[in-house]
Amino acid sequence: MTKAIVYKFGGASVKDASAIKNLHRVLLNRLQRKMVIVISAMGKTTNFLEEILRFKFVEKDYYSNCAILRKNHLAICSELFEEQNPIFSIVENLFLQLERDLEQPLNRGNYDQYYDRIVSYGEMLSTKIIHAYLCKENFFCIWQDARELIATDESFRSAKVDWSLTAKQCKKQLEEKLKKFPVITQGFMGASPAGKCTTLGREGSDFSAAIIAYSLKAKSVTIWKDVPGVLNADPKRFPDTIKFERIDYKEAAEMTYYGASVIHPKTIKPLANLKIPLNVCSFVEPEGKGTIIGTFPDERHVIPTIVVKDRQVLVTFEVTDFTFINESHMHHVYAELERLRLGVNMLQTSAISISICLNEEMFKLEQLLEEMGSYFKIKYNDGLQLITVKNYDEASKKQFLNREGVLMEQTTRSTIQVVCRP
Predict the structure, then answer these.
(1) 114-136 as b/e, with b when 16 or more CB fall inside 10 Å?
(2) pTM listed for this prediction
(3) Nearest in space to 158 (alpha carbons), one of 196, 120, 188, 124
(4) What is the torsional sign of CA 150, 153, 157, 158?
(5) Average pLDDT, rounded, for the chain
(6) Are 357 and 345 spatial neighbours (Cβ–Cβ below 8 Å)?
(7) For residues 15 and 75, is the Cβ–Cβ distance under 8 A?
C-alpha cells in the first residue's frame, strides 16, 4: 500500500498572496493523493499575536493591532478571491472569536494557557485561507483541525506529546480521507484530553510534521524553506555559506540542539526512530536538490557550522557563605529550572558560582530570580547572543573567541560556545 508523504510550509512560504500562489504551484507539480500538508501562520503573524498579548497583559490598547492583523489577512484574501467567496466571512468570524477570547482576564497564573489559545489563531487563519484558495484552483483537499490529531498534556507553550493516542487519532482522522484527497492541517498546535488548545513550542510546525509522519509511518517529510537546504550558517548573517547535500540523523540532531533554526529541535527523533527521510528544500527554487537527512553514518562534515541564538539571558548564581559549589547547589538550581520548564543552552561552574544561558521567557526569569534569591547572590544580563561553532577550525576560533563583549565562553574538542553582547 502506498505510504503518505508529509509536506510542511513555514510562515515565509505563505506570507502573502504571491507566496500562496507559489505554494499552489509547488504542490501541483508534486501532487499525490496521500499527502498531508502542514501549514504555519502567515509571515510574522505569530510575532504580531505575541505583541497583542503583551499589550493585553500591561493593559495597553491592543485593539488597533487586532485591526491591523485583520486588515492584512483580508487584503491577502482580496488578492486571491472574488468578493463573494465565503472565505471573507470565515476570516471575519475567526477574528470575532479572537476578540472574544481576548476579552477574558489575563494574569501571570494563566498566561501560558492564554498564550496557546490566542497564538494558535495564526495557524487557523492561514490554513482556512490556503485551503479555500487551493480548492478554488481545483486542487481539492480536506481541511483538518490539528487539535483532533495531536494529543498532548497541559504543559502549555511546550506541550508533551501523547504518542500512543496521537497515532490512534491520526489513523482515525486521516487514513480514510487520504484515500480520496490530500489533507491540509495546522502546525505548532494540539490539544489536551480536556480539549484545551496547546502548542508545541516556538517554531513547532516542523515537529508537527514529524509527529504526523511518525503516526502514519509516512514515506518521507519535506520542509519547504526560503533557503536551498541545510547550510553551515544563516546566510542572512554570514556570507559564503555552504549547503550540505546529505546529513546523518545524529549530526542533524546535534545541529538542532545547538539552535540551528532551519529545523525544530524535536523534529529529528521520531523520524530517525522509523528511518523516515527528511528533505529540506527551497520553495523559491523548488526544482533544486535541497538537503536530505537520513541514515548516513559515514557522512561526517568537518567544515565549521555556526549557529546564532538571539534573546538570550545569562544568569549567575553565587554562594554567599564561601562554600564551594557542590551537587546540592546544582540540584537546587536544576529542580527550579525543571519546575519552570526552562531549558539550559549553556552551563559553566566555578568554585563559588553556577552560570547558565537561557532563552528569554516572559515571567519565568522573574520567577526563577524570586525563588533562588534567598539561596544565592544573583547577577544576570539579558538581550544577549549565544554563538555556537560546531567542528571549529583555527580561523573560526580566532573569529569568535576573545572578541569584544564576550561574557562567557567554552571550548570542547569539537565545539566553541560564546555568550556575548550582539
Answers:
(1) bbbbbbbbbbbbbbbbbbbbbbe
(2) 0.92
(3) 188
(4) negative
(5) 93
(6) yes
(7) no
